[in-house]
Every structure is written in C-alpha cells, then in structure tokens.
Write a structure and sequence with these properties.
Layout lengths: L13 H21 L6 H8 L3 H7 L3 H18 L11 H17 L7 H9 L4 H27 L9 H22 L3 H16 L3
Helix pairs in contact: 1-2, 1-4, 4-7, 5-9, 6-7, 7-8, 8-9
Length: 207
C-alpha cells in the first residue's frame, strides 16, 4: 500500500493511513449526498468518528479534503471500469463497456449521476485547483477510451482520416450527457441512446 502524507508533509504510518482513508471515505459519502457546499468539516469529523485535531492533522483545510475526495472518487469511477478502459480496441469491447455503464446505473437505481461530473458542476467555476484535479481525472478517463480507438486506427480498422482523440472526447461527452439525463429521468434510456448513437457512428467509420 502506498502511504500518503499528512498536512505537515510527513509520511503516514499504516494506522495513520487508515484514519486518513476513513476521513476521505466519510467526506466522499457526505459530499455525494449533500454537495460540497452542504458538507462541513464538522460533518465529516462526526461521520468519520475523529477529533478536529485528527482531521486537521491530515488536511490543512476543507479544500485539501475536497481534493482528496476527488482523487478517491476518480479511483472509484475508473476502477469500476478497469477491466475495460485501455482495452476498448474493438466495437465488441466498446459495446461491452457500454453495457457495464448501463448496469452500474441500474444498480444505483439511476441515482447520483457521475460523481466526477457532479463535482465538476459544483467546483469548476469556484475552485481552480479542484477544477484542474477534475480536468486530470477526465483526461485519464478519456485516455482509457482513446487508447483503444488509437489501436483500432493503427491496425487500419478505422478510416485513416478519423481522429481517434476527437472520437474519444465525443464518446466521453456522450457518456456524461447520458448520465445527467439518466439521473434526472431515473431511467437508463438516455445513457443507452447517447452512447449507442456514438458507437453506431464509430462502427460506421470502420472498414
């Protein structure tokens, strides 16, 4: 296990890492439920069962905790897709990944939306450092999609005039838009329609 650092920059012990992880998990759950503005450090302290001195031993302020939550949720979102991202190098693999995204939403009863997209809507205009963290998170997600499309392009399975990077951006955009509508409508149909439309388009570019 890779140990993190506390607010003072010193490496944490395994016990300290466990406490830090518990605080971040509690903060992530509260922020997903109440939003960043609706979650106070006191709320997190009580949920994690730690003292104020413990919380500030690991995090200088609320924003440093929020940034840790972004990293935590990035790992969760991308980790749930780990068996697919990086290997989306065929239409069949892309459609299996699509099915995974739909299953995840059905398992959540279409509640909560995309944790990263939700945080982006709350923080992009008010917290520059958090926006950059989220930009990086989406870049990793996009790269996981794009590497497979590049492989298809390199093998000559996609038309030579196709830009795999643009396709990856458009496909991730379709996922995010579909997730928002799925959350609002409590129905996976919008996610299915948006991703299926992009995958049909990508398939039309194959030869």
């Amino acid at each position: 296990m890779l140990l993190s650092s506390g607010a003072n920059g010193r490496k944490l012990t395994r016990k300290g890492q466990g406490t830090r992880d518990r605080i971040v998990a509690a903060a992530a759950a509260l922020i997903q439920e109440r939003g960043v503005a609706g979650t106070s450090t006191e709320d997190v302290r009580e949920a994690a069962g730690v003292s104020s001195s413990q919380l500030y031993h690991y995090f200088r302020d609320k924003m440093s905790l929020v940034r840790a939550v972004i990293a935590y949720l990035t790992d969760a979102v991308l980790g749930a897709q780990a068996d697919f991202l990086g290997d989306l190098d065929s239409i069949a693999a892309l459609r299996q990944w699509r099915d995974l995204l739909v299953r995840i939403q059905r398992g959540l009863h279409c509640e909560g939306g995309c944790p990263l997209g939700t945080l982006a809507s709350q923080l992009a205009e008010t917290a520059p450092t958090a926006r950059l963290d989220l930009e990086l998170a989406f870049a990793w997600w996009e790269e996981g999609i794009g590497s497979g499309l590049r492989a298809m392009h390199d093998r000559g399975e996609l038309r030579r005039d196709v830009d795999p990077a643009k396709l990856a951006t458009a496909l991730l955009g379709a996922v995010q838009g579909g997730l928002i509508l799925t959350q609002v409508r409590r129905d996976t149909a919008p996610l299915e329609a948006s991703v299926d439309t992009m995958l049909d388009y990508i398939e039309s570019l194959t030869r």
